[in-house]
Amino acid sequence: MGSEPTTLLQGTLDLLILKSLVAAEMHGLGISRRIQLITGGTFVVKPGSLFPALHRMEEEGWISSYWGDSENNRRAKFYRLTKPGRKQLEVETERWGRISLAIAQALQAS
Amino acid sequence: MPLVTKARSFLRNIFFPNHGEADLDHEVQCHLQLLTDENIRAGMPSTEAHRAACIELGGAEQVKEQVREIQIGNWLRSVLSDFRYGFRQLRKNPGFTAVAVLTLSLGIAVNATMFSFVSAFMLRHPPGRDPKRVAVVTSINPGNGFLPDANPVSIPNFLAWREANQVFADTAAADQYRSVNLTPVSQSTAGQPQAIRSAAVSPNYFSVLGVSPEFGRTFNDQEIRPGRNRVVILSHELWERQFASEASQIGRAIRLNRENYTVIGVMPSSFHLTGFIPQLWTPLEVTAANQTANARKDRSLLLFARLKPGVTIEQARAEFSALARRAEQDFPEIEKGWGAAVRTLPDFLLYKFGIRNGLAVVMTTVGFVLLIACANVAGLLLARAAGRRKELAIRLALGAGGLRIIRQLLTENLLIAFFGGALGLLLAYWGIAFVRGNMNFNEAMSEVPLSLDSNVLLFALAASTLCALLCGLAPALNASRTDVNNNLKEEGRSSSSSHCHSGLRTTMVTCQIAVALFLLVGTGLLFRGIFMIEHQNLGFRADHLLTANVVLDDARYKDARQ
């Protein structure tokens, strides 16, 4: 499964973005590379999926943005988690746990 | 709070889109730069790094468009921008816009003008409570004539059927075609007696219809007896016109047919049954003379009755057919072949006026005129579409969906149609005034309230929208199937793909000419018919002749001999 998340897994993409922002505030590319890292290379999020997700989550109020300088002194838009965002991360984590448990159960049944 | 954040984003996206656009563009460009740096660090040469970054980004415009699609209020924003763009396009082509708008406005104007008739006759509710539950009983004349089953009923039949029927909660009767002489009471005002149309009604007439007087009261059961029946109820117009709306008139006497009648009430101005124009109401007197077998020949009453709850009009119809048959059996010489017809009040009023067929013909005709206008404008749009192929090809190449293009073209058509509709309504306002001014060949017709009311407005709106859809669908569907490569390669306007266009245009022009000819022939025949009626040979010279009706009042001419 080396392809990017589809819209069906929109909740999953949100979860990954929120999780990667817990560690540190990052710009778009940084978030993309971090997701690639923490999923062991399984998920490569293209800009076409990342940017809409980031803007949608910003409109929902889970992340906020500001302009800053990157490592090479390049201008970039950085994102950080908000308090509602941290709550949403817990909600999404718990939901993902339930889903994966349910699927595991379903696969074990004969 | 998520709702506040969302609302703020929504408003910002609609009203201040430019700021967000600049920010988004900057963000995407910076992202591209970061990708390029990453590639350079990995060892690519700089041009190669930049190209690889562009490929990984996948196209800056596409990414930005995907972000726009996700933003709150995007749909509204794109609709608004469609309208702005359409408006600009129309302004750039003033000649085309003027012709299209004018054509549609003429079509909509005639339709709206004629629809004022439909609104006045068919969409207006008769006065009173729940008029659909009021039934009107009439006789069916066995000989033919105009409206054979709207003949009045005789007094003996009224009395018999009122007692015998099971379907009506209350039955009233009205003689709607009487006439009285009104003499102004005070000597100072111009004292010429006038002939006033009046109606004689049973005491429960107003309660059956469910109307209350504006002032005073209606008749009670005592007042149909001779000696007690010198009471009268005035219509609102008569009270205004003749008695200057003086409240003191109620309770005073007026002179009708050389006798004093006491005014006991005034009806509201909203009380008006289409086609009936009595200015005042008197009680319907029923004497012994009215109940003889001979009196059956004198048919003068229309019966108005309220259906019992749960009874349908078909049940009433069946019951009265049976009652009419019984009358036929009991009085075969007089009632032979006469039946009874029952209709609901709205149906009866429309039928009695006799205008339904005329309305259908007129509305069909103006409908065809509108179709011609639409075909005209559609042809103009097709011709213009041929010249916009390059623009559309570029938009398709940039990633616009076929649906988006159709929507944008339909928006332009909606703009044309709504301007056409607005101008059409203005023309219709004058048209309705003109028609109303000329439709006064009899009193019943001049009572009909023809005006540009809310029904006509809604109709014009619906007609405009329909025009937009009709005119725009064919060119829009054509446009979305544009062959992108061929159109971008061609220089200027060549005629290779207008081949299929010209076939469609030829068909439409042919159809327009056919329908226009059909309408012209029909109108010509109509005019010839009217001309022939007006100039037919009557057998005598009709110029310089007047006709007059003399109403003999009962006081001076007491019996047939005098």
Characterization of the model:
The complex is a heterodimer of chains A (110) and B (562). By secondary structure, chain A is an alpha+beta fold. Chain A has a single domain, classed as Orthogonal Bundle (Arc Repressor Mutant, subunit A). Chain A has four helices and three strands; from the N terminus they run αβααββα. In chain A, β2 and β3 form a beta hairpin. Chain A starts with 9 loop residues before the first helix and ends with a helix. Helices cover 59% and strands 15% of the residues of chain A. In chain A, α1 crosses α2, α1 packs across α3 and α1 packs across α4. Chain B has 562 residues and is an alpha+beta fold. Chain B folds into three domains: 71 residues, no CATH class; 210 residues; 142 residues, no CATH class. In chain B, 56% of the residues lie in helices and 12% in strands. Chain B contains 19 helices and eleven strands. In chain B, α6 packs across α15. The longest helix of chain B is centred in the C-terminal third of the chain and has 37 residues. Classes of the chains: A alpha+beta (110), B alpha+beta (562). Chains A and B meet through α3 and β3 of A and α1, α2 and α4 of B.
Brief synopsis:
The complex is a heterodimer of chains A (110) and B (562). By secondary structure, chain A is an alpha+beta fold. Chain A has one domain (7-108): Winged helix-like DNA-binding domain superfamily/Winged helix DNA-binding domain (Arc Repressor Mutant, subunit A), CATH 1.10.10.
What layout of secondary structure does this protein have?
The complex is a heterodimer of chains A (110) and B (562).
Chain A: H1 10-23, E1 26-27, H2 28-38, H3 47-60, E2 63-69, E3 75-81, H4 83-108
Antiparallel strand pairs in A: 1-3, 2-3
Helix pairs in contact in A: 1-2, 1-3, 1-4
Chain B: H1 2-15, H2 17-41, H3 46-57, H4 60-70, H5 74-92, H6 94-121, E1 134-140, E2 153-154, H7 155-164, E3 168-183, E4 194-201, H8 205-209, E5 215-216, E6 231-234, H9 236-243, E7 253-256, E8 259-266, E9 280-283, E10 299-307, H10 313-330, H11 332-335, E11 339-344, H12 345-353, H13 356-387, H14 389-397, H15 402-438, H16 443-447, H17 454-480, H18 484-489, H19 498-534
Parallel strand pairs in B: 4-9, 6-8
Antiparallel strand pairs in B: 1-10, 1-11, 2-10, 3-4, 3-7, 3-10, 5-8, 6-9, 7-8
Helix pairs in contact in B: 2-3, 5-15, 6-13, 6-15, 6-17, 13-17, 13-19, 15-17
